[in-house]
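Internal tracking record. Fields below are filled automatically when a chain is submitted to the structure queue. Please do not edit lines marked as system-generated. If the sequence contains nonstandard residues, flag them in the REMARKS field before resubmitting.
Queue: standard
Priority: normal
Entity type: single polypeptide chain
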Amino acid sequence: MSEPTGLRARKKERTRDAIGDAAVSLFLEHGFDRVSVNDIAAAAEVSKPTLFRYFPTKEDLVLHRFADHQGEAARVVRERGSGIGPVTALHRHFRAGLDRHDPVTGLNDHPEVVAFHRLVFTTPSLAGRLTRYQLEDEEALADALGEGVQAHLRAAQVLAVQRVLARTNWHRIADGRTAADAHREAVADADLAFHRLR
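SYSTEM-GENERATED OUTPUT FOLLOWS
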């Protein structure tokens, strides 16, 4: 009798999570460049080939948390209600992220999130890989917005605004402010930025 597909999928997801969690934990403790793939495989109790089936590169072991948001802006645009403009939908989505302190907005003061962002933004290979994710997001958003150079320009502008807002929020938190304390300022910045985009 074969294993049910749902159970197999859940086991794969648990293995993926265990590998990713072990990697991030080791990277936060020792630094990205001081941890080998062998160290991660041993900590997650998997073989190196198994690790690479789930995460093709060492950078993916960290950035899978960003990959979970891959294509999010495009989805927001495609799933918006009738009569709601794309920029308005994206603005509302970003504001909702600020309200729930979504780490993607940079407005999250949980120590592990702050350390994770510091790891990503101060490790050149991770920052470079993150840029690739952002370019893929830009392509997806441009497709959702329409055709031609206008759609690409609008997608680039929107994602640049979101990136600057998130980085600004992260700097506030890294400088010692709490998410609750920085919330009002983050919302005001987002409202101004998206108003200018319109």
